[in-house]
Design goal:
Layout (H helix, E strand, L loop, with lengths): L57 E7 L2 E7 L5 H12 L8 E5 L3 E4 L34 E4 L12 E4 L12 E7 L1 H8 L16 E6 L6
Antiparallel strand pairs: 1-2, 1-8, 2-7, 3-4, 4-6, 5-6, 5-7
Length: about 220
């Protein structure tokens, strides 16, 4: 399942401890999308239960070598996307994944378990082993917005997400916005400007560690 963002050109917690888990820019940038390739789960995960908590005073902290990015969620408009992200983060699913696609003046994309290894060719094709139905909403894809990558099928979101570095109104009502950066946007700006290959994959690995913490613990 290749996950990018689509426009004129198209290219995606069970446990509370992480100890048990291992694993050319165009004029109009391609949108975050996922291919139809099926991916195996990165670990012994099953999809979140319907009653998995989605509300609460918690935020996500994405730690990278360029600093931390803190994101708050939009559970009122995209409850299942928030539930999915929190569930995967609490299962340590995202730890070791990279930002495998960066496009200047557009967005950074990550969250593919296939990016944990050194094989770059399959980066952008993985997921958790399930999909999340679209929850398109009225939130603008403004700078700093967190949204979900998918394939041409609107209901194909899995684990791959992207963060806008610039307003991308063409994505409104086509991708599910489910959060926004509230701290650390400068780290996003550094990531998006890293040298990259012809597939927009940074030449040097940019790994992430994702935690769900109370707002106070994130300095908010």
């Amino acid at each position: 399942m290749r996950t990018l963002v689509i426009v004129a050109v198209g290219a995606m917690l069970v446990a509370t401890s992480c100890k048990s888990q291992s694993k050319t820019e165009t004029t109009k940038p391609a949108e975050p999308q996922a291919t139809e390739k099926k991916a195996e789960p990165a670990g012994p995960l099953v999809k979140w239960p319907d009653n998995y908590p989605v509300t609460g005073d918690s935020v996500a902290v994405i730690s990278t070598k360029y600093g931390d990015v803190v994101l708050e969620f939009f559970p009122d408009v995209a409850p299942n996307h928030v539930r999915n992200f929190k569930y995967l983060a609490n299962a340590c699913f995202y730890n070791g994944c990279t930002f495998h696609r960066v496009i200047s003046n557009f967005m950074i994309q990550g969250g593919d378990p296939n990016s944990k290894d050194t094989i770059r060719a399959n980066d952008g094709t993985g997921g958790p082993g399930w999909t999340v139905a679209a929850e398109f909403n009225a939130k603008d894809h403004a700078r700093g917005v967190l949204s979900m990558a998918r394939s041409q099928d609107p209901n194909s979101a899995g684990s791959q997400f992207f963060i806008c570095v610039k307003a991308a109104k063409h994505l409104n009502n086509n991708y599910t916005a489910f959060g926004q950066v509230v701290k650390g946007i400068e780290a996003v700006d550094q990531i998006v400007n890293q040298p990259r290959d012809q597939r927009d994959n940074p030449l040097e690995r940019i790994e992430m560690r994702v935690r769900i913490v109370p707002r106070a613990a994130a300095g908010l």
